[in-house]
Amino acid sequence: MKPADTMLLVFTVLACLAMASLSLLGEERVDVYYSLTLLAYFVSRTLVPLPHRGRLVDVLEILLLMVFGVVVGYRVYEVLWGEG
Amino acid sequence: MELRYIAAGANAAAIAVTALVYGLLGGLETVVGAAVAGLTVAAVLIAYGVAGGEPIEILLAGYSKSLSEFASRLLEDTNLLDTKPRIEWWMGVPMIVWGRRAHAPGLGLVDGSPYLAIPVKGLTDALGEETTGIEDVLKNLGVGRINVIREQGRYDIEVEGLPKIIAETTGLPVNPLLVAIMVAVGLESRREMKLSSYECRGNSCRFRLEEAETR
Q1: What residues of A are in the B interface, CB distance below 8 Å?
Q2: CA angle, B192 as apex, B203 and B103 as ends, to 5°?
Q3: pLDDT per position as a tens digit, B157-175
């Protein structure tokens, strides 16, 4: 099995486990699903190191992290100033 | 480009989008969350698919193509283009030889006639460890359909659905497919074999190898 196959398999399994666990717990916050999937991705990248895969993957990772930043920012805003 | 990752990603995206629409219309936050996670998985799969193969494979494919072109030019310059290659053993080292019976690996002369002998020990070691026959070698190369007919001292091999990277080099007198087939036949028969005919059209090829006369 190629390293990329292993990495994507680990990522997909982790993401599915996270998704199933959150659904079974009745979690309704969309950002939690997203954050855990992103965490699964970076955990997989760390567990199965790959050589540099090109600019497209870099752009995707930056985009995913930016969305994560927005989610975290929104949550911080909500805690500090939200709902009175 | 890795089509299987793209196909998996497209499937995941289709399911995720359906779930997303269903979740949004039904006001089901749990379904929307799972759909967003699914879309993230799909995006990663598609990005890895579009990004292409392993960097080392890309490097080796380019290297192999350059060597094929170089070896083909050598055959042309030494007037060996019309000769059929054979697989021979020299001190336990398998070699693919064009021209007269080789004395040693490399480019040389025997009685004033040139020969080109490419040692393929690395390849036979690698293929011999992982495979048990010609079909295995070709399957590992990603060939779609393989038909091998074995008759006393003769092998007729037909391959169809060659991967693009291999099909691009089949026009060269020395190419990875030809070398792989000769090595695979040599490994299976453990004899000195000669290519008696070789024909390629599009991404399908036919080979006939026969036992070489021992001189």
Answers
A1: 2-4, 8, 11-12, 15, 18-19, 22-23, 26-30, 32-34, 36-38, 41, 51-54, 56-57, 60, 64
A2: 110
A3: 999 988 877 888 888 888 8
Cβ B102 vs Cβ B88: under 8 Å: yes
Helix (H, G, I), strand (E, B) or coil at B201: strand
Residue A24, number of CB atoms within 10 A of its CB:
9
Q: How far is B103 from chain A (nearest CA, A)?
A: 40
Structure token pair of residue A44: 């997989």
- What does the block give as tokens for B126? 């690698």
Q: What are the helix and strand counts (H, E) for chain A?
A: 3, 0
CB proximity list for B168: less than 8 A, separation 6 or greater: B65
CB neighbour class for B26 (10 Å; exposed up to 12, middle 13-18, buried from 19)? exposed
| ipTM for the assembly | 0.91
Q: Which of the 8 DSSP states describes residue B152?
A: T
* pLDDT, tens digit (0-9, with 9 covering 90-100), for B138-164: 887 778 888 999 988 899 999 998 887
Host H or E run for residue B95:
strand B93-99
* Amino acid at the residue B134: I
- Tell me which chain B residues have a C-beta less than 8 angstroms from the C-beta of A71: none
* CA geometry: angle A23, A66, A28, nearest 5 deg: 20
Residue A54 φ/ψ, nearest 5 degrees: 110, 170
* pTM score, whole prediction: 0.60
**A11: closest chain B residue by CA:** B41
The amino acid that residue B121 corresponds to is K
